[in-house]
Amino acid sequence: MEELFSELLPHFSSRKFNVGCDETWDVGFGRSARAVREKGAGRVYLDYLLAIHRLVKRHRRTSHFWGDIIIQHPELVPELPRDAVVLEWGYEAGHPFDEHGAAFARSGIPFFVCPGTSSWNSIAGRTSNCLDNVRNATRNGLRHGAVGVLITDWGDNGHTQYLPVSYPGFAAGAALSWCHEANRSDDFIQALDLHAFRDGARVMGTLAHDLGDAHEKAGPAQGNSTILFHLLTQAPDSPPPSGVTVESLGETDELIDSIIGPLESARMDTDDTETTRDEFANAARMMLHACKRGTAMLEGTVVSAEKREQLASEMRTVLGEHRRLWTARNRVGGLQESERVFEERLREYAGAL
Asked: Are residues 118 and 71 in the same domain?
């Protein structure tokens, strides 16, 4: 790590350095197994973190690190260095920002609260969860003296969501971190129309907000995901999520159609107007396809040649648009992984899976 930091850090002007150190599932296995048996997983983790911190200080940077591991060992929290910053992250509406923030505050450790946009593993977002997650984080960050707010936005499992899906989370993060009390009850629809989409018809704010919650009609909530994402990406021999029915998927299909209907009447005034319009249109296609695939699986018609050809035709449109839209905003790196789920569906419909 010392060699890596020496190679990389001179190329960056920021004095803040996020060293990561989250989700360390492998601690206690392989090379660290003996140390964990002797000292315990928390102590092994903290010793390594402190060693990394010393390296960062040599480069005159401030260490930022994710707090999900150390908070599992609250007795060690007081040993954290006061010149590092904990990044307290959690992405569900009910994440314990209050409890964890209080623990860091009692020990005098500077910390950020880090909610998320709830966009990944979702297709079009999880709007209500996102807004409640950001409200929870900022409210309790303020209560316990957090020194910052970091709005996270990830791309797990192929990054099937498009950039504007994250706008509600970005808007909420900006408003609630700047002035929580004034903005805590806002739905941010008007702000999205005015500042993000610049939509004179006031269509896009509501559309983005409501499309991100359409998944709820399909059935019980999925942690850090949506039912529709699951139906789009799951293996063909996997059972549909519990609580999903043909009726609930039909209602979801109708809801998506009603939400996306006004898209063409939007009057956006941005440099990426056409891209944004097409991104929401393709996101809706993915969601509608998930409804149809789930319905076919429940009805047992997904094995019929006629149904497979219908699904394949829809998926070819989704995949073609996804490739075009990916390269409209992003480097080509990552596209191959992102398109893999759509290619798997096409092979499935061709009978190759």
From this structure: no
Q: 153 and 53 share a domain?
A: no
Q: How far is residue 134's CA from residue 130's CA, in Å, rounded to a whole number? A: 6
Do 232 and 286 form a contact (C-beta atoms < 8 A)? yes
Q: Structure pTM?
A: 0.95
**Cβ-proximal residues to 239 (8 Å cutoff; 6+ apart), any chain:** none
For residues 167 and 143, what is the distance between their CA atoms, to the nearest angstrom?
26
Single out the residue of 70, 30, 28 nearest to residue 49, CA to CA: 70
Same domain, 248 and 208: yes
Indicate the DSSP class of residue 94: T
CA distance 142 to 24: 28
Helix (H) or strand (E) holding 106, with range, is helix 97-106
**Do 33 and 138 have their domain in common?**
no
**Are residues 183 and 304 located together in one domain of the fold?**
yes
Domain that holds residue 67: 1-78
**What pLDDT is recorded for position 352?**
57
Per-residue pLDDT tens for 216-261?
Answer: 999 988 889 999 999 999 988 888 888 999 999 999 999 999 999 9
206 with 66, same domain: the answer is no
179 and 240 housed in the same domain: yes
Count of domains for the chain: 2
> Can you list the residues of the chain whose pLDDT is less than 50?
none
351 token code pair: 């009978």
Closest CA to 42 of 19, 63, 72: 72
Name the percent of the chain lying above pLDDT 90.
95
